[in-house]
Amino acid sequence: MERRFSKTIERAQTSAVRDILKLTQSSKVVSFAGGLPAEDSFPTEAIRDAYERVFARGKGAMQYGVTEGVPALREWLTGFLADKGIGTSVDRLLLTTGSQQAIDLAFRVLIDPGDVLLVERPTYLAALQSLSLADGRAVEVDSDDEGMLPDDLEAKLRTHRPKAVYVIPTFSNPVGKTWSSERRRALAELARKYGALVIEDDPYGDIRFDAANRIQTLYEHDAALGAASGDDGNALYLGSFSKTVAPALRTGFAAGPADVLRMMAKAKQASDLHSSAADQLALLELVTGWDLAGHIGFIRDMYRERMEGFVAALKGGPLDRLRWNRPAGGMFLWASLPETYVAADLLKLAVEEGVAFVPGEPFYAGVPARNTLRLNFTHTPPALVPEALARLSRAIERYSVEVYS
Fold this sequence. Notes:
By secondary structure, the protein is α/β, with parallel strands linked by helices. It has helices at residues 7-11, 16-23, 44-56, 71-83, 98-110, 125-133, 150-160, 181-194, 218-229, 258-272, 277-288, 292-313, 343-353, 385-404; strands at 30-31, 93-96, 116-120, 137-141, 143-144, 147-148, 164-167, 197-201, 235-240, 252-255, 323-324, 332-336, 355-356, 358-359, 372-376.
């Protein structure tokens, strides 16, 4: 029987990252493709103990709960965010099934078919997927290493009058860059001027290799502007515990204007009623009886060492044809090949050699830079990195010979 599906889902693209992961199931392939945290960082025993304490108190954790999330966890989260300078309250927090759901809900309540969303160039692939399912249209804002270029941002705000601007200003996915304070302030000011909500996606912000060198979030910049006018804010801040605790807990959150969160809660009711109360209660048990700050410090140190080892090995021979950034945190390194190279074609040879990465092309909403690629430096055990990069080097050499000889 021929099935008829919605035009929206038929137009939607599958995740390029997930498709690549299917190609790398062989144990012989070392993958730098997935946005995966190090499994060595997962506090498995502490999580197991937290679940045991939750279930020891009875069966309540298995019951339905409120859409907004477990109140006690939201109460704890207000203090956790306040310690980072992010002021909010229990009634201005929505717990979600990972921050990916928070992105999806935000787009669902803001975007009508044909609406424009302004994004960085390049931007997070799964955000583009969510926007596609909302029938929205992404318009790129020219960006450099410090963030969106204010002149181009204002021109596109004026031309398109979008309802929102979506950004990852701290250790972005895929580029790994960090916006300057000046660019954050410029976006906060311009978004208010043109009536566009700022959606700040911050899943990597805690993984700053130099913990003392913190930059204020866009949410904080907007709050400073809002304090003068006494409004409810113009920034939606999205976060997650997937990178600092474990992805399987699937607990993210959104903080921001009360009217936006009310609409997101309404959309969430239609989606899944609420996220897992058992997972939220286990997370609450974990963070209230355990040194989360110390664990985040452990992850910072581990990832800094892995990044330094990775970039030390990313040189010599054909690897010198790559141009790459040195991230100050997060999980990704963004690299460029010579302009005539096509990273998607190189990937085929790389997989044959036994290594994988993500071509940069799917991260662009507009005309892509086809010579770019994203490398994850957190998941692969350090002992495997030199050999894996040697395989990448061989693939680059093969590509050069086969395409240009």
